[in-house]
Amino acid sequence: MKLAKTSHCRHHQINSDSSPSSQIFPSNLSALNLLNLPFRQLMDSEQRRKRKRSLRTSPSPHSHCGFSVRSLLLCLSFIFVLLLLHRFQIGRASFHPVVIVSTLSHLSSSTSNSIRDYVSSRFLLPLRVEDRILFPDHVLLMVSHINDRSELLECVYGKDNGVEAANKLISRPVLSVDELDELRWVARCPLPPQNYAAEVNLRRLPRKESIVEGDKWQRKVHPAVHSWEMMAYAAAMDRDSAVVFVKGLNLRPNRESDPRQFSCHFGTERDGRFALTTRAFSAAQEIVRCSLPKSIRMNPSKAHGIRVTVGLNSHFRANARASNHVLVPSVAKMLSPYNSNQRKKDQGKHQLCVCTMVWNQASSLREWIMYHAWLGVERWFIYDNNSDDRTEDVIQELELEDYNVSRHTWPWIKTQEAGFSHCALRARDECNWVAFMDVDEFFYFPFPTRRRGGSNKPIIRGQNSLRTLVANFSSTNIGEIRTACHSYGPSGLNTPPSQGVTVGYTCRLQSPERHKSIVRPDVLDRTLLNVVHHFRLRKGFKYLNMPQSTAVINHYKYQVWEAFRAKFFRRVATYVADWQEKENEGSKDRAPGLGTEPIEPPNWPLQFCEVWDTGLRDFVLANLADPTTGLLPWERSLL
Question: How far is the CA of 553 from the CAs of 193, 377, 437, 513, in angstroms?
């Protein structure tokens, strides 16, 4: 009885905790029946009744034993959704979509695919058009959030800003997509059709993603399309100053202008204003140089990515306030100083580099780079001015062959002088000397020189001879070496020469035209002023005219008509009229007697031929041709 009583007390305690209103004995049992039933039998029957009642009633909310399988799945699903929301961080501007593959066995593969498709279509970062620039033959879009150049994009045009504009959209294939810098991409779109706005948008293919909301945002932030006639288009930090490249200042070529009429303005636009302002201390052609604000000088990294423009005051006074200046529209952003990418000090600088600007010169690059590499050039900066041929592919192939070539997107038309100044800044921390020349120009040492000391044995100019030449002047006050150019004609050919221009074109004009220069970028004047053929130097440095008996440049200017007619599309120099423009028709920059139409004149193959000169052809075949096959390096690379 003692054991039974203990068990009875424990049972009473447990059921009291689970249901305070329940009793051990039902109220309809009489005392007599209780006395007549054995105690164990009474307890067994009472427990069976309790189990039946517990099955009929719902479990208590405080009971941990009341969860079903269905409840467990609901809880797990809720936790899974919370994890997804935490992982995606919806609503943040820096969101990067991540596909999470569930490990729960009850999610089928089709469900996982649905989640992935939803994330891909819903959370792909929209194409953000930051600026639009209207050029004579295309619209340039400056874009963020392009993943890579393999993305298929189309240009989208609308008729007006009305409610029904989305129903009037038309699309055209994008002309090209390029990475401008580490902040932005550029996409070139065709000019809008008649009656359509120039506020072009982009969208991805094959998804027809909506652009209406993005378009509203773009029109609100940038309501107008920039005109290429007047705008700040590029900027760079140069030690304690900012260099801003501006189109439309109409400053005279080859002259320094009064900088007091200009100021520089830094920061993000707020109510049409910039946060920081400094005065200009030099201005020439398309370049304005200003002091950096103190906050940026103290911490240059703060300037990375901020917009900068130039202020104008046509009626300037010595004490004019910069706040009164009218700001030029700007797409220019400050980037980290170029020396952030400079070679390690223990490697030293390259002795000789080359900078050029090209448009559709893929067929010329291999011969030009391989030949000058043999002469000692160590580094190439190629400024690509909207090429749509295989220029980029050829540069990548040359890089794979260990030629130190880099391609820089330069979408600004007719800005060769500014591009060369930009390149001089970029190359200064990498190169002792930089040659500025075109891809149809080749250095050549026409005559051997005699050894000093009475020896009659000649020194044959050969491999690395150009690098050796400039190195001899590195410790002098010579800051620029000028070399005369001989212009070659089609030399009787009707088709491009198969072995290259150095072997194929052998007839030239008798007198040299112009010159090209190799400069020391660290001794250039602060204006960076140049007229393509030469730069202005700092005080204390001078230029050297290279004797024609020592070195000349073969300029294959007038090639077969098939190659020459491409010049009629557009010329890259700022102050040189395009071929089709009826300006300065007697200039040496034009073909004499050619006119302004791309029509092949009579007897073109024999034009510009006064002297047959096979010197460079013989030099190339003697020094660069394979002794077994007779192939030249640029021929072998094409096999």
Answer: 46, 15, 10, 10
What percentage of the chain has pLDDT greater than the value 90? 49
Distance of alpha carbon 210 from alpha carbon 126, whole angstroms: 10
Contact between 506 and 613 (Cβ < 8 Å): yes
Distance (Å, rounded) from C-alpha 463 to C-alpha 485?
Answer: 21
Q: Where are the alpha helices (DSSP H) in 480-595?
A: 501-504, 561-564
pLDDT reported for residue 370? 98
And the tokens for 505?
């074109």
Confidence grade of residue 4 (pLDDT, cut at 50, 70, 90): very low
Nearest in space to 551 (alpha carbons), one of 468, 483, 449:
483
CB-CB contact of 356 with 395 (8 Å): no
Contacts of 284 (CB under 8 A, 6+ apart): 251, 255, 256, 257, 527, 528, 529
416 versus 19: which is more confidently predicted? 416
Residue 343, pLDDT > 90, answer: no
Strands 552-555 vs 542-545: parallel, antiparallel or unpaired: unpaired
Residue 165 has pLDDT above 60, yes or no: no
**Can you tell me the distance from the alpha carbon of 7 to that of 39, in angstroms, rounded to the nearest whole number?**
12
Separation between Cα atoms, residue 552 and residue 547, nearest integer Å: 8
**Three-point CA angle 569, 577, 224, nearest 5°:** 75
Strand pairing class (308-312; 326-327): antiparallel
8 A C-beta contact, residue 276 and residue 293: yes
Structural Rg of the chain based on CA atoms: 39
Q: What are phi and psi of 115, to 5 degrees?
A: -60, -45
**Can you tell me the mean pLDDT for 588-612?**
78
Residue 82 buriedness (CB in 10 A; 0-12 / 13-18 / 19+):
exposed
Does residue 480 contact residue 607 with C-beta atoms inside 8 Å? no
Omega prior to 206 cis, within 30 of 0: yes
Short-list 384, 334, 422, 394, CA closest to 188: 384
Q: Find the length of the chain.
A: 639
- Does the pLDDT at position 569 exceed 80? no
* Residue 384 φ then ψ, to 5°: -90, 115
pLDDT tens per residue across span 533-561: 789 999 999 999 999 999 999 999 999 99
Parallel/antiparallel/unpaired status of strands 170-173 and 152-157 = antiparallel
